[in-house]
Amino acid sequence: MKIKRIYNDEEGKSHFGEVEIPLADGGPIGLLSEKYAAGKVIFRETPADYDFKWHPAPARQLLFILKGRAEFTVSDGERHVLGAGDVLLLEDTEGEGHCSKAMYNEVRHSIFVTLDDSVQF
To answer: What is the model's pLDDT at position 121?
Structure first.
């Protein structure tokens, strides 16, 4: 399973990347990843006019979008619109960070799951 990520380089500039979560046969229920250590779970509703300029992620975390869409912009100007069902790994906890804004005048519902430092994908 592949998911997008935002990370920062040695100069503090953010970039998009991708990580692959390895899956293995879980029997009749399908494919499963290993169990990863997680910290806090945060539920969030973001207003339809949300437009948050440059900021680093407050923690290394996974963002699960349940409803609505948002555009994320990184240092080199690359932009991606993510919506319901998308997962984003936020690792740009230092440096310039990223921008995020609501799209299409939609409220966004999302869940953030902070990750233990030992978690590597």
So the answer is: 87
